[in-house]
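Q: Start with the shorter request: fold the first protein.
A: Done. Sequence, then structure:
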Amino acid sequence: MIQIIPYPSERAERKLLAISRRKPGADPVLEERVFQIIEAVRSEGDEALLRYTREFDAPALAPERMNVSQAEIDIACSEVDSGFLRILRTAMRNIEDFHRQQLRHSHFLTKPDGTFLGQIIRPVRAAGLCIPGGQGGETPLISSVLMNAVPARLAGVCDIAMITPPRRDGSVNPYLLAAAHEVGVDRIHKVGSAWGVAALALGTPSVPPVDVIVGPGNIYVALAKKILSGEVGIDMIAGPSEILVIAESGAKPAYIAADLLSQAEHDIMASAICITTDKNLAKEISLAIGKQMGALPRQETALSSLERYGAIFVVEDVSTAIGLANYMAPEHLELHLQEPLTWLGKIENAGAVFIGEHTPEAVGDYFAGPNHVLPTAGAARFASALGVDDFLKKTSVVAYSREAFDRDAPSIIRLAELEGLKAHAESVRIRQRKPSD
């Protein structure tokens, strides 16, 4: 079910290579198909959106129902229970409290020579959130609404749009609509997949364009974001979910097994890895996975994921485990160690770190506060979790006094001429001449 592999070894290297090749957007045939969808939306607008939505989601969707109405939102809010709303609002407060620390402010600096420098921080005008339908709309991804909308709202975005595929009858799950209403989403469009991303990026009569697109989705969403990057800002090109657990003697095998399965059930391409210093613990984790697997509704998906991209690596010491984790740069990293804080400073590459046996990755998915939109497929080496910065743009401000200009002009001219840019140099030199010259 899940292999126990000594590390380092040739067998371990083969498994690591297989895991590293789970890159998003590696299928040129599929990429061409997504390109064609984007071009159809570019040339046909709403007609293309309606055609694709009818083909894949809601066969009888009427054009006038492509956007969620206020009446639909009001009905949804009346249908959800008060207990759900209490949970939703608590989660939202936690996420707000965390992301509020990321807020930036414009800043300016005046030097004694009269130079005036600064940076203006502004939100983008409009942001688009991709929210997957979740099994035909029956498993609404409420947490994704919160994680994407909260930082956008805190950043000051004035137009927050959400796309989500409709259910077969053309409706949207009421819990999803209620969550969007609570968090301040301004408009909701019943389109998904690559055509929804294209609509947000390019704009149609029914879907005004946005400046930034964020949020999760399937391979079609990932490829659409990849192709349209540059025409619109994107957060990241996300791949399949992944978890890496580092454990030593004394860790609870049942907890670790449950956490590995929590990612394996996502997708057959998901990766669930444990690195441990204890051979006996490795065997106990494997047995615990077998026991827990039978109770999972998505056990077929989890089993395929574990067989292809899951493993328990047995290493000599925690230092080796940390080194391997930094090499893999996982989306989620759990530390089931006796003294986890002593090792935290050694973690260089991870989307998010979960410390201790009472911190399963699921608390980060839903409730704790940090964002659950995280870099995958090794991108944690250079990328970060979604945050307020993804909805901000920074504009530099430069103003030179005559004194500062005269001081720096020779240096600027020299650098411009070395680069072969004579007009650049002349734009400085002309200001050195006397008015009579």
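Q: Next, the second protein, separately.
A: Sequence, then structure:
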Amino acid sequence: MKIMAIFPPLFLTFILTVLFSFVIGLELHSYRRTNEDDLGFGTTRTLTLSGVAGFVFSILDTSGMLYIAGFLALSAFLLVHYRSRQEKNPSLIPPMMAILTYAMGPIALREPLWFIMVYVVVILLILGESPGIRKFSDAVTATEVVTLAKFLIMAGVILPFLPERPIGAAIPVTYTQLWLAVVMVSGVSYLSYLARTYFFPHRGILLTGTLGGLYSSTVATIVLARKDRDQSDPLTSTAIILASTMMYIRMAILVLALGPGTVSFPLLLPYGGLFLLSLGAAWGTRTVSRFLKPPENEKGSSPSVKATHPLEVRTAVIFAGAFVLFAAITHLIIGRFGAAGLPFLSIAVGFTDITPFILSLLAGNFSVPKEALEGAIIIASGSNNLVNGLYALALARNRNVLPAFLWLATAFLLSLLYGLLLR
């Protein structure tokens, strides 16, 4: 028999309020014992009674006036107490916990169970992870806060006001599609940037290739190859292959988010296959490198991938310009040569940035079969791999990167074959 059928809902809600308030009180007590000698206000009993008071005031007066009066009284008491202890302990954590616990009752009465559970979990995480949060806050600079504000403006302010109409007759994409592509690409690159900067600051060469591939496989390949020319490392080939491997993950995310389902979902098969094959190639080169490198240097040194910040205004403008340019060129090529011209254009695009080209194919209303679009996207990705392999050979100038080049050239041939078979 379900417990909800045994006890009245009001009783269960009250018990939940008491238990959650008690748990928050325990966590605050532990927090204060760790960070302060004098516990002062904010014991487990105090916070539990605060939660009970908020619950009782809410059910005694449904208009909310009694609850508001209690809130004002509690706030006045907390203000007096805070001022009396400001010199000794200026932290606002205990008063804030008392107010949040006081709000537990109305939340439990009005909101679903999942919400109050998330509410409590967030409070507990903030209290329990105080050292980690403080360390992270010290590491984050004011520049990063401004950068985050830029991204929120791009996604939440500019995007909703753009018109849903084509940019021009020769550019079959809308203003909204253009800016949404900028936001999505910037978002994926920004997450990679944050991971490299704050979560893996002391990464090895393999992690450098993996995270760099999420930002730009070409940039990561250039940096790794230059580093290998100055300091030879058998792990360089593995890192370069991993960079191109993660490119498939990055592009899969973008095509799923921005492309029509009729085109984006079929792309998961070739992207997934090439991703798995690339992982296998990386594992193979990694296994070979163990016989070429002493065990004490197994992790490899970490080259510095100093890529342009993904949320710079100049970067966004350049990407938007490339997006419009490739849409116009694609429209021109299809107009003159039809779908037969797409494979040649896709190979040529590999020597530039393939992301705006692929996204322009997905956003543009081109009068070609969807199989031709899928083939062009796969060929462009493969062409980019070939270019990365050529960069690696030219910049490293040693045989360490030869396995990477051979695999990237093989991936290009597989992509070309797959793309041509779709025609």
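Q: Describe the second briefly.
A: The chain has two domains: 3-137, 140-421. The chain is about 75% helix and 0% strand.
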